[in-house]
Specification:
Radius of gyration: 16 Å
Number of helices: 5
Shape: globular
Strand order of the largest sheet: 1-2-3-4-5-6-8-7
Strand content: 25-35%
CATH topology: Aminopeptidase
Largest sheet: 8 strands, mixed
Oligomer: single chain
CATH architecture: 3-Layer(aba) Sandwich
Order of helices and strands: EEHHEEEHEHEEH
Mean pLDDT: 91
Number of domains: 1
CATH superfamily: Gcn5-related N-acetyltransferase (GNAT)
Low-confidence stretches: 179-186
Number of strands: 8
């Protein structure tokens, strides 16, 4: 009997040619409040931007984790190496014991000043590649049907649209090959 692959304890840094995905820290709130402060970022998801204290409180909750050992909350800030500045976030909520295998739900956001430069696509593709090296069986994202840029990001990350619609958003997914999910990782 093959032993089950180990579950990583938490997010680790992910390097790409242009980006560094750094595990989220509460201290990131100061810089990220400016990055995420444009109300236009909420056109498809609703709500309003957090101010720095609100973002600090949110990041405190995210860093603390889900509280459920069967669910991991992993969050990264996206640093553009050439400018040495934060430009957005990516996240994965992993349900390890889902009925149809471990499922990671991913999301991304890049500040409006850095959109259109391929940052979200590179970050999301790196995140999905990292998840594919773990004991994750399926990666999903929910994308508003009118959000053309987010559809492009999902496709760049290897996800394909499904017929499922959740809260008005289309579910995109990528099934991970059993050999990829069985690889140890961390």
């Amino acid at each position: 009997m093959t032993p089950a692959p180990r579950r990583p304890h938490g997010p680790e840094a992910i390097a790409t040619p242009c980006l560094l995905l750094e595990p989220l820290r509460v201290e990131h709130a100061q810089e990220m409040a400016a990055v995420l402060g444009d109300p236009a970022l909420h056109a498809f998801i609703g709500g309003v931007p957090y101010d720095e204290p609100g973002l600090r409180a949110r990041y405190s909750r995210l860093v603390a984790g889900s509280g459920d050992p069967a669910v991991s909350w992993w969050n990264w800030v996206v640093r553009l190496r050439t400018e040495d500045r934060l430009t957005g976030t990516v996240q994965a909520t992993v349900a390890w014991d889902a009925p149809d295998g471990a499922v990671a739900e991913v999301a991304w956001v890049v500040g409006t000043a850095w959109q259109g430069r391929g940052i979200a696509s590179e970050a999301a593709a790196a995140l999905v590649a990292r998840l594919a090296a773990l004991p994750v069986d399926r990666v999903i994202a929910h994308v508003h049907p009118a959000h053309r840029a987010s559809r492009s990001v999902a496709a760049a990350a290897g996800l394909t649209p499904t017929s499922a619609v959740v809260d008005g958003e289309i579910r995109w997914q990528r099934l991970i090959a059993p050999s990829a999910a069985a690889a140890p990782g961390g």
